[in-house]
Design a protein that fits this description.
Helices cover 34% and strands 11% of the residues. The chain is α/β, with parallel strands linked by helices. Strands 2-1-3-4-5 form a five-stranded parallel β-sheet, sandwiched between helices.
C-alpha cells in the first residue's frame, strides 16, 4: 500500500512540473485513446503524387509515423489501452457543414489527441467555434483533450488554436517550429512538393516525442 501511495505521489509531482495542466484524476485511468488529424495521421495512396503508403504521410513505413510511435509507447506501458486513429481532413476543409454524427463511435474516450490545422484556410476566422463544437460533441466522459497545432508555422490557425487551448486550460503541444528545420521534412524522398514538405521519419518522431512527453504521465 505504501509503495502504491509513493508511486502516485511521484506521478503527481511530475505532472505538476509539466507546463501543461495534468488531470491527476486520469492518471492510471486512461483506457481508451482517440487520435484525430489529417494526412499526417493517415493518408491513403495517391499515386499521382508519388505517395504509395497507407499511413501518416510522408513516413517511410507505418511504424515510423507519429501515430504508430505513440501507440508503441502507450502499449509498452499499458498493453490493454484501446487506441483509435482517424484522418478527418474533411472537417478542416468543411468544418461548417461537417456531420459530427459520423464520429459517434469515437465519443466518450478517456484521452483525445487532436491535430487539425494544416488544411484550414488562413482566412477561416470562424474555425475555432466549430473546433470547440467538435471537442464538446466527442468528449462526453470528461476526458483529457490534447491540442496540437499544425506542422507548418505559416498557418495563422496555429495561433488561434494556442489561444483557444490557453483560454480553456487545455493541454497544448506546439509542433509548428519543427518545420523550420528542413531535415524534419521528407524533401529528399519525394519529388512532389506537397508530399515532400510533410514530416519525414525524423519529423514524425519529433512530433511523437513531444506528445508522449505530456501524455506519458497517464499511463
Amino acid at each position: 500500500m505504501r509503495l502504491l501511495t509513493f508511486a502516485f505521489f511521484v506521478l503527481a509531482l511530475s505532472a505538476c512540473s509539466h507546463p501543461n495542466r495534468v488531470f491527476t484524476a486520469r492518471i492510471g485511468h486512461v483506457h481508451r485513446v482517440v487520435i484525430l488529424g489529417n494526412s499526417i495521421v493517415k493518408s491513403p495512396p495517391a499515386t499521382q503524387l508519388g505517395w504509395h503508403g497507407d499511413w501518416g504521410m510522408a513516413a517511410s513505413a507505418p511504424e515510423h509515423d507519429f501515430v504508430h510511435l505513440l501507440i508503441d509507447s502507450i502499449h509498452a506501458h499499458k498493453p490493454d489501452v484501446e487506441i483509435t486513429f482517424l484522418s478527418i481532413s474533411s472537417f478542416e476543409r468543411n468544418y461548417r457543414v461537417f456531420d459530427l454524427r459520423s464520429l459517434d463511435s469515437l465519443r466518450g474516450a478517456d484521452l483525445y489527441i487532436v491535430k487539425l490545422a494544416e488544411n484550414v484556410l488562413d482566412t477561416a476566422t470562424d474555425y475555432i467555434p466549430f473546433y470547440d463544437r467538435l471537442f464538446r460533441y466527442l468528449d462526453t466522459a470528461g476526458g483529457v483533450r490534447v491540442i496540437t497545432d499544425g506542422f507548418w508555422r505559416r498557418n495563422p490557425v496555429n495561433d488561434r488554436l494556442e489561444k483557444y487551448a490557453h483560454e480553456n486550460n487545455e493541454p497544448f503541444i506546439d509542433i509548428s517550429d519543427l518545420s523550420r528545420d528542413t531535415s524534419m521534412e521528407a524533401r529528399h524522398r519525394f519529388s512532389n512538393h506537397g508530399v515532400s514538405v510533410h514530416p519525414g521519419d525524423k519529423g514524425m518522431k519529433a512530433i511523437a516525442d513531444r506528445i508522449w512527453d505530456y501524455i506519458r504521465v497517464y499511463f
